[in-house]
Each structure stands twice: as C-alpha cells, then as structure tokens.
Amino acid sequence: MALSDTSLVAKASVPPGLKALLSDWRRGDRAPLARIVIGVLAVLTLVTFGFSVMTGASDASIWNVLGLEVLGFATDTTLSARDSIIIYDIRLPRAVMGLLIGASLAVSGAVMQGLFRNPLADPGLVGVSSGASLGAVTMIVLGTQVFGPLFAIFGIYTLPVASFVGGLITTLLLYRIATRNGQTSIATMLLAGIALGALAGAVTGILVFKADDKQLRDLTFWGLGSLAGATWTKILAAGPIMLAALLAVPFLARGLNAITLGEAAAFHMGVPVQRLKAIGIVTVAAATGASVAVSGGIGFVGIVVPHILRLIIGPDHRYLLPASALLGGVMLLFADMFARTIVAPAELPIGILTAVVGAPFFLWILLRGRMQMGL
Amino acid sequence: MIEATNLTVWLSGKPIVRDVSLRARPGEFTAIAGPNGSGKTTTLKALAGELPFQGHLTINGHAISELKPWQLSIKRAVLPQASVIAFPFTVREIVQMGLTVHPHNSHVTNQRIVTDALQAVDLEGFAGRFYQELSGGEQQRVQLARVLCQIWDPVVDGEPCYLLLDEPVSSLDIRHQLAIMALGRRYCERGGGVIAVMHDLNLTAMFAEHMIMMKDGQVAAAGNPRDALTDDTLQTVFGCQMRVNTTPAHNTPFVLPHTAAF
C-alpha cells in the first residue's frame, strides 16, 4: 500500500480542499483526514440515533409524540400517548444504551490493543468479558445470600460494579502473565486469555448449576447479549461508569501512541508509563464491565471498529479513540436495528449478529497480518 | 554533565554493572565500547533512568532517580537498539512522537522540527512512507530523527541536553555511518552531549573525544581514544592480539582486523 499510488487520484481534477488533504496524506500527515472522518462520524451518529428511535416493530411515530409534546397538538391523543410510551420508555433508552455500549466496547478494544501493542487484543477474545460476566453472575446467584450488604450499599450499581471488578481482575492477571520486561508476547496473551476465559466460564457454570429457578430466568435474559432489556434504570446504573471510562480516554491518547514503541521508549519520551498502564487497565475493565453488566456478551465490536479505522485514519490514538467511540456506537445501533426488525416481532440476540460479522473479520486480520505478527 | 559514581546494577540476581564511575561532559562525544555482554547497554539504560541502581547518578547536577519522566525527557533522549512496531504508523507520525513532551509547541514549529530532523538523518521525502515497510537501516535513522526531535536544541535555558545512543550506526551503510557520527559530533559542538555505545573502534577513534572501555561490567580503560585505544587494552578488554596504528595526518588511532594474531 505505497502512498505513491495515490498519484493517479491526484492527477484527476480535484477540488483544492481535497488536493491539500491528499498532499498532507502523501507527506504522512493523516491528522486533517482524521478530523474530517471524526466530523462525518459525529453526524452519522446523530442520524443513526434518530433513525433508531424512529424505527421498530411497532408503528409508533416520533412525529405523533413530537406533535403532542412540543406543539401541544395531536391528531389522535390516545395514539400519541401510546407512541409516547413506546418512544420514551422503549426506543429512546435502547438507542442511548446502544450508543453507550457500542462506544465502550470499541474504545476498550482500542485502548487494550494500544496497551498490549497488539491489534488482536480485545476484551471479548482474551477473557476480560468472561471475567466481567463471572462478576455479574456471582452477584445474581449469590447476591442476596452472601453479598446482601453490598446490594444495600451499591443499590442499582451492584451489578455493573461486580462486572467491573471481574473484568479488572482478569485484565490485571492477563497483563501480569503476558508481559515480561515491558514486552508483551502475542501468543502468550491469546493463550492466557483462552485459559482465563475458560476458567471464568467454568466458575460461571458452577454458579449457574447452583442457581434456583428465578435466578436462572434472570441469567438467561441477561446472558443473551441483547439491548432488549434497556431501561432508564439500567442506563442510570451503568451509564456513569461507561461515561467515566470514555472521558478518561483523551488523557490516554498521547501515552498510548508513545507506548507502541515499547514501554522503555515511552518512558524516555516523558510518559509516566506505570500510571498510564494503571489508568488504561481500569478504563478497559470499567468500559467492558459496565457493558457486560447491562447487555451480556457482545463480541468483536472492539476488534472490528478500531481495525477499520486504523486502515483509514492510521493508528494515532488522539483520533483513533474518539473515532472508535463514534463508529462503535453507530455500528451497534445498526446491528440492533437489524436484530429487532429482521425476525420481527421476535428479536435476534445482537451478540449473534456481531459474532457472525466479527469472527470472519478477525480471521481475515489474522491471515493478513500473520507474517508481521510472527504467528 | 552526566555523572555516575560507583554505579552498580543488578538484573535477575546478577550484578551486570559493578562499581562503574564515569563522566560525560557537554561538548564531548563519549563512546562506550567493549565486548558483547560487558554491560554497555545496561550502563546506558541506567544513565537513561530506566533501571533501578545502587550508587549515584546525576544529570546536570540533579539526581536522576528523583526526576519525573517528563523532566528527564527534556534533558536527554534515548535511541534504543531495535524497535518493533505493531501498528501501521507513517514515518512522520513516528518522528512526531519525539515531540510528545512538547505539547505546547505550535503546529508550525513542530512540522519544521520534524522536517529538519528527517533531513538531518538523510530521510527527506520519507515522511509519507510506512515505517514497517522500511529497511532496518532506514528504520534506525527514523528512530534517530524521533530522538533528535525530543531535544532538538542542544542547550535549553543554559542547561545542556544529552543524546544517549545504543549502537546508533549498527545497521547503517558506511556513508550513513559517517553522516550519523558527524551529526553526533555537531550536536556536541553546539553545546550538547552524546553518549554512544559503539562496536566500531575506528569510527569511535575518529569521532569520540572520550572513550570508555568496559569489561565484565567494569570500566577497564577510559580517556581520549589516543590513550585508551592501545595494543594492551585490546588484549585485556577483547582478548585480541591486534596492532593499533595511527593515521599520518591527524594521528588518529585505527585498528585493522588483518593484524589479529590467533
């Protein structure tokens, strides 16, 4: 993919703005392009959000609701009231949740890949999501008996916090196992991730085995990997954790860039490496844990989104991280719209959809990059 | 000045560097030479502040262990031996990373420094290339450009800055070996300091003002190459029976491998 190949494009008559962009690109400066991509993604996010609120299995119309709420005028008041419930209590929280979870999953993937200096690291693949699930399942099954006081203290936050702790422990273990003297072994990381994921899965299995009927029903609904259960209460519980993780991201970007050259080189360039790693790991665990707590396992968003963006705007985390957040939200909302309309009035768990698209994509990355990554 | 007093470094339970004392003055090209495994790189890493150590280390009079990473990074920059990068960065993006500690520079200043640094390592026109697609020698020079960006001015607020280079010319062709050594020398002439781990004794003799020969983690000989590079030191440090000659014009010592006796 030599940059000189773009000369063909440049020869065609192009507007001056695009010409400047191409010349920046040829000089190795992808920042102007990245800023435009982020702008486009921001618009796309708003459009997708609106579209997601407008479509669904029922024929509820946002215009009826807007008519009633904003203009105080409605052609049919009962219809508008029904639509109002569908939009406010079903579609709107679901769309908000979709954006938040998509953004969290994509960003935690991108941050983890930066920390491990490895494009294959993804919380879903290397067991972090399994650890987070274990945390959540532990709460659901043992919650009232063993951790009763915790529920009293954390209230609605108990489940997200438990997932966060589960994810944090897994990420820390993984980092300890896979990183020696500031170098992360790709093979060790993936294999250790499989082992940790399997272990977390096994313990989860034991807990499920012990669960009573009511808990089993809770577990099944929770574990399908779906946005169907989105409510304002859940957003209130998990949203702040995800937002906090997303807000930490701008402070990580320069450090993550430097650390791609190795931990020692990052230190030489003035980056406080230990603090960067600590914040990064907590961010990954928080974003993954909160997402898993509300939607179960939705895989591959964290690997597909940053990878596509790296191909377009490059790996500079100052642009990659915000762009990942936006594209992650957009992709999950699209997947969700697809999931709830394709087999309507039933619903496909969204986790199945992301896996169907994501798994082949992951294989493609693997085959394409096998040489460079020494696998 | 970078000064080490009784520096001892332990790695995995072994003393790799033992009781080393050395001085690297601003305005002087300091070279560290010695056989493989003699502790050259470990010494350099300790001077860079990245390893725990016993003894005393100072840079311009400040204890290195008490400076924060960003404080160190505006006084010294470090060229590591080899860097593998997993993401498709362009050359410009890599070189710009050297400016991580200067986030308040204007965009124009940063672009100028990047362009000048690439020119200094003879990589004009490479800014748009992908780092991963370059040859080993070209990658080494990209890294050097990044390191130069970090402390572009050899003297800041009256304090000299230092380039710590680990085998800076190891994968370069002869033209670029000479160019990069001359670059280091110019950095010294402008008031900065250079400490380089070197294997090529002839380049060292040509460009270094101060030479430190290490053996088994200790300093075996130190001084101007004219004094430090002798038949005796080659015998004791490298275990090689070789003759050191001098060039007629400048009285610079040189070593021909052909003179080695086995």
Features:
heterodimer; A: 375 residues; mainly alpha; ABC transporter involved in vitamin B12 uptake, BtuC; two-stranded antiparallel ribbon; 16 helices; 77% helix; disordered N terminus; B: 262 residues; alpha/beta; four-stranded antiparallel sheet; 32% helix
Q: Which shape of chain A, going by the Cα principal axes?
A: globular
N- to C-terminal separation of chain A?
22 Å
Total domain modules of chain A? 1
What structural category arises from helix and sheet content of chain A? mainly alpha
Describe this structure in words.
The complex is a heterodimer of chains A (375) and B (262). Chain A is an all-alpha fold and 375 residues long. Chain A has 16 helices and two strands. Chain A has a two-stranded antiparallel sheet with strand order 1-2. In chain A, a hairpin with a 2-residue loop joins strand 1 and strand 2. Chain B is built from nine helices and 14 strands. Chain B has a domain of 68 residues. Chain B starts with a strand and ends in a 7-residue tail after the last strand. The mean pLDDT of chain B is 93. Chain B has a six-stranded mixed β-sheet with strand order 6-9-10-3-11-12, sandwiched between helices. Chain B has a four-stranded antiparallel β-sheet with strand order 2-1-4-5, covered by helices on one side. A two-stranded antiparallel ribbon of chain B has the order 7-8. Helix content of chain B is 32%, strand content 27%. The interface between A and B is medium-sized, with 33 and 36 residues.
